[in-house]
Amino acid sequence: DAKRDAHGTIRWFDSEQDRLARERRSTLGRVRSALENGDLSIYYQPQIDLRSNDIRGFEALLRWNREDGVILPGAFLPEIENNDLICDIGRYVLRGAVEQSALWRRLGLASHVSVNIAGRHLQHPEFIDDLKAVIESVPGAHVSDLEIEILETTAINDFERTRDIILRCRALGIRVALDDFGTGYSSLAYLSQLPVQTVKIDRLFVNRMINEERRKAVVQAIINIAGVFGHDVIAEGVETYEQRAALAEMGCHAIQGFYIATPMPEDQVPAWIPG
Ligand code: C2E
Ligand code: MG
Ligand code: MG
Ligand code: MG
Asked: EAL domain spans which residues (predicted)?
């Protein structure tokens, strides 16, 4: 027992106390408390299919509700992505999004949900079991309603393993999307070997596409390559009508962005849905 060590001091105990106190004050500790206290919530952003103009589905996006406002994931996820807390958060978002999807399905609404998965969680030995557990325990959940989004950098980090996990997801009937495409290595070799169904073009390209011909050419190239591999292509960060029109013209399958809607709490979704 470290509290009564050979020297009879309580130093170890003190420093353990200090460590816990420090952790509680740190982002990691505060996010852990937020998860336990129900202060983490999920917003949903619609994706529109440009071929049918229907809702393709919704991306689940994490939010931290604090007294000083709603905090975006960029302000706290980077600090916890190397801790197992990111896996607990991943399970929480997966369950919440799948429950929401089952509810929307019961209401006859679009029920596809996309969930962002951190590299650490994806490569965790229990990840596939986490997916199965969620699908099996949520009443009315349809496996085909679920898509997971992974970053290219995650895939490249442990390529063979990621490839194997993607294949196991697909064997379960879950779709897999490559997120933020264009910002990482974006290698053709990788893209051709990753068994994903969807490629999401990073908003950096969409953003500057209208004024920069070279960016537009990159977007067109990604759409063409994705077409060769049979992938669905979603453009992220569409903020204007011009961008939407240009993407439709280029043959992009779906779009997501503030031009359509900003991410919203789930209770606002039914009212938002057109018609
Ligand atoms: P992402 O997966 O690429 O998600 C798209 C981000 O772009 C979201 O930011 C969304 O709010 C924002 N966005 C959507 N449309 C527009 C637009 O038209 N203009 C602009 N400027 N931004 C737009 P958000 O919600 O802050 O999330 C940031 C990132 O945090 C996500 O990027 C994703 O990588 C990560 N993230 C979010 N939720 C989760 C989660 O539950 N788990 C994990 N592991 N990561 C998450
Ligand atoms: Mg995403
Ligand atoms: Mg993205
Ligand atoms: Mg991103």
From this structure: 24-275
Who lines ligand 1 at CB under 6 A?
Answer: 45, 61-62, 72-74, 77, 93, 116-118, 149, 179-180, 203, 236-239, 256-258, 263
pLDDT at residue 14, as a whole number = 67
Q: What is the CA radius of gyration of the chain?
A: 21
The pLDDT of 131-151, averaged and rounded, is 97
pTM of the model: 0.92
Res. 88 pLDDT band, cuts 50 70 90: very high
Q: How far is the CA of 8 from the centre of ligand 3 (A)?
A: 55
Pairing of strands 113-116, 264-265: unpaired
Task: Tell me the CA–centroid distance for residue 202 and ligand 4, in Å.
Answer: 7
CA distance 170 to 56: 19
Cα Dmax for the chain: 76
Closest CA to 246 of 221, 209, 191: 209
Please report the atom of ligand 1 found closest to the CA of residue 259: 18
Could you tell which of 42, 79, 236 is best to mutate to test the pocket of ligand 1, judged by most ligand atoms within 8 Å of the CB? 236
> What local confidence, expressed as pLDDT, does residue 264 receive?
98
pLDDT over 90 (residue 121): yes
ipTM above 0.95, yes or no: yes
Q: Are 266 and 42 in contact (CB under 8 A)?
A: yes
Which one has a higher pLDDT value, 153 or 254? 254
